[in-house]
Every structure is written in C-alpha cells, then in structure tokens.
Amino acid sequence: METVRTKTGASARTRSVAFVGLTIAIMAVSAWVTVPLGPIPFTLQMFAITFAIVVLSPKEAIAAIAGYLLLGAVGVPVFSGMRGGIGVLAGPTGGFLWGYLLGVAAAALFLYVARTKLGVAGGAGVPKLSRAERAALPAPRRALLFLRSFGVDIVAGVIFTAIAYVCGWVQFMAVAQVDPLAAFLTACAPFIVVDLCKIVAAVICADAVRAVVK
C-alpha cells in the first residue's frame, strides 16, 4: 500500500512539473505574438496567463509565472519581441511583467478560496465531477455550477489583469517620466477592452480543457 501511495505521489509530482513546464512554454510563445501599438505591444500573454490561473493549481500557476520571469531575467528571449534580460524588467514596460507575478498570486489565492466557499471544483475538499457525472445532474444544477465557476474564473482574471495594469502603469510613469494620465492613456487604456475579451476567451478555453484533463 505504501509503495502504491509513493508511486502515485511521484506520478502526481511529475505531472505537475510537466504542466508547469508546458505553461512556461505557452507563456513564451504567447509573448512572441506581438502587434506594435506604440511603446506597449499587443501580445497574447494576458490570455495565456489567465488560462494558466484557471487550469492550474495555485502552486503550479505561481511556479509557472515565477519560472517564466526567471528565465527572462537571465536572458532567455521569452518576453515580447523575443527579448530577455534584466533590462526588460527594469524598462518602461517591465512593470507589467512584475505585475504578472503579483497578479497571479492574488488571483490564484482568490480562485482557491472562492471555489472552496462556493463548492466549485478546484476548491479544498470539493470533488471534481467527470463529464458523465456532470451530465447526470439536473439542468438547473448544471447551470448553477457553470455560472458559479464561470463567474469566479472571470473575476480571477480581472484581479490578475488589474494588478498587472497598476504595476505596469506605475513603472511606465516612473521610467518614461510622464504624468499619471499620460501613462494610463499610453500603457493601459488602449488594451482594456481587448484584454477583457482575452479573459473571457481564456476562461472558456480553460473550462473545455478541465473537462478532459483529469
């Protein structure tokens, strides 16, 4: 019995490490998809990171974003425009990157607590329903579970994005030496609607992935 538990634990750790590594790779690839919009480029990072927050456990999500930032800090070209190094983190747009770490931590914690309180899969002590078990539930119950899960995931994405915006706004204002309004209009305002759409898309994709990944 002890041997079975040991093997199960080792398998779970291996699976967790694989998920974290894959997520870091997805974050890097999403950063390379860049559309220049002034000094702040448009990327798919908000989508990828929100997806990771929703799909992974809090520890895995934090480990993934920390690993991503560490790789970029040592010079691996994982940031937007295939850049890397401390200079990017200290530059005008570096605040968004630092904000990713703080935002992921806050959003993952919120998600864990909210799921536990509401009895949504992913919370402490809440069993994960299989697709067959979910289909067997009455329609009103299925709808309630979906709305709870979807709503909580959306709020987590908004928390992450808001924190990243604040950090990015403050650093852009300090490094570029512009006033708060100019910094907000340049670094944040053009992306709000698009990033909200990314959050919704990430949550929808994450829900589909969670349904098949056990």
What does this 3D model show about the protein?
Keywords: Cell membrane, Membrane, Transmembrane, Transmembrane helix, Transport. It is a multi-pass membrane protein. The chain crosses the membrane at residues 12-33, 39-56, 68-90, 96-114, 150-172, 184-209. InterPro entries: BioY (IPR003784). This protein has 214 residues and is mainly α. It has 9 helices and no strands. It has helices spanning 2-32, 45-55, 58-73, 86-90, 94-118, 131-136, 139-176, 180-187, 192-212. The model has no long low-confidence stretch (mean pLDDT 85).
Instruction: Determine the mean pLDDT.
Output: 85
Distance between the terminal alpha carbons, to the nearest Å? Answer: 23 Å
Based on CA atoms alone, the radius of gyration comes out at 19 Å
**Continuous helix count:** 9
Number of strands: 0
Q: Any idea what the shape is?
A: globular
List SSEs in N-to-C order: HHHHHHHHH
The percentage helix is over 70%
Low-confidence stretches: none
The secondary structure category is mainly alpha
Strand content: under 5%
Main pleated sheet: none
Membrane topology: Multi-pass membrane protein
Pfam families: BioY (PF02632)
Transmembrane segments: 12-33, 39-56, 68-90, 96-114, 150-172, 184-209
Family: Belongs to the BioY family.
